[in-house]
Amino acid sequence: MSTMLKRLIAWLVLLGVLVFAGQQWGYPAWQSWLTEREVARIEALKSLPLPVAAQPGRLDPDRMMQDLSWMAHPDRQGRESGQPGALATRHWLLEQYQQIGLQPAGVEGYLHEYEVQEHIQFSGVFRQRQRHIEAISNAANVLGSLPGKQAGLPYIAISAHYDHLGVRNGEVFHGADDNASGVAAMLELARYFAQHPTEHPLLFMALDSEEKGLQGAVALFRDQAIRPDQLAFNVNLDMLSRDTERQLFAVGTYQHPWLHPLLDRVQQQSSVRLIRAHDRPWWRAGRTENWVNSSDHGVFHRHGVPFIYFGVADHPDYHTPRDTSDRVDAEFYQAVSETVLDFILRLDQQLAAKAQR
Questions:
Q1: Bridge-partner residues for 140, per DSSP?
Q2: What are the residue ranges of helices labelled H in the chain?
């Protein structure tokens, strides 16, 4: 064996040892350091003082609570996608859309009906993940729109999933916060905007099958019920109605840094603390949870649509039968909904001004 070959083998062995050592000791330590730093950053955001104690009331909190309570009632049987409770909720949503005056924006009227075949869903690049997706039938997204004042602008889409987990082992999973709260807020926003038109047209999307792997949003683009080029932005609402520390997470600023000044202005008028977090990649945030693909906004993001996700942190009643309407913090819920309204109004103006340049 030549001297050069021996040296090459030695270098390869040394490189292998260094890589192994880095994986065993360096990488975990680095990830722990990143995680600790990100947790510290989030905790610092949580400690910032709130600018205002209360907000102007433009939305009807009693009506929002009535809508939320209707969806989370035991008669809805947990609104599992394709089951009678979800079908009843769908028919109720059609009535609400008609009463509000939303224009049909589905494939047939307000509806985009779809089915899903059983399959394995793969995700991830460096770390391949897979999820079993069960077959789904009798599912439908409910889509309605309001015209904008400026012709030719794409939609601002406001989405919230109306399905939940159904009945398991004889217990109803009511899904009050997850996500009757998001749908009821979306309906109340639609009522407001029906009386106060925006520059952009608005698309209100009550999406199905989120709890089964975001399949309602996936089908939306798969079936071309909506195209990415028709959308200026997606505001996704999922779990808005309770947090003991008055915190609302705003996810998407890492992907869209131009949202920071807008959210700064929203925060100045909000009585809830907007926490911009859970959207950084692992090489910035370590093992901190990443919520970019945790709800329907993830599908919009994968199709190139700018997004923000508003939602609270998981609480002890999340995905349990205890997620009931009597546990909702009505005052916090109203403040969150008013904050979302303020965000949409400012977003509409900013994007419209940009379109005119």
A1: 113
A2: 3-21, 27-46, 61-71, 84-100, 181-195, 215-222, 259-267, 282-285, 297-302, 330-356
8 Å CB contact between 239 and 181 = yes
* Stretch among 25-34, 143-152, 190-199, 254-263 having the lowest mean pLDDT: 25-34
Instruction: Tell me the per-residue pLDDT of 255-297, one tens digit each, with 9 for 90 and over.
Output: 999 999 999 999 999 999 999 999 999 999 999 999 999 999 9
What is the overall mean pLDDT for the chain?
Answer: 93
Q: Which CATH number goes with the domain that contains 85?
A: 3.40.630.10
Residue of 168, 76, 172 lying closest to 68 (CA atoms) = 76
- Give the C-alpha separation, 298 to 218, whole Å: 10
Neighbouring residues of 295: CB distance < 8 A, sequence distance ≥ 6: 161, 210, 214, 236, 238, 309, 311
The answer as to whether 184 is a domain residue is yes
**63-74 per-position pLDDT tens digit:** 999 999 999 999
CA–CA separation, 64 and 73 (whole Å): 14
Asked, for residue 55, whether it belongs to a domain, the answer is: no
Pairing between β-strand 119-123 and β-strand 129-133 as defined by DSSP bridges: antiparallel
Number of domains the chain is built from: 1
The span from the CA of 159 to the CA of 179, in Å, is 11
Model's pTM, two decimal places? 0.91
Task: Please give the residue range of the domain that contains residue 136.
Answer: 61-356
Is 128 a member of any domain?
yes
Strand partners, 308: 235
Domain assignment present for residue 42? The answer is: no
- How does pLDDT run across 3-23, given as a tens digit for each residue? 666 667 766 765 654 455 455
- Cα separation, 189 vs 353, in Å, equals 22
For residue 126, the model assigns a pLDDT of 44
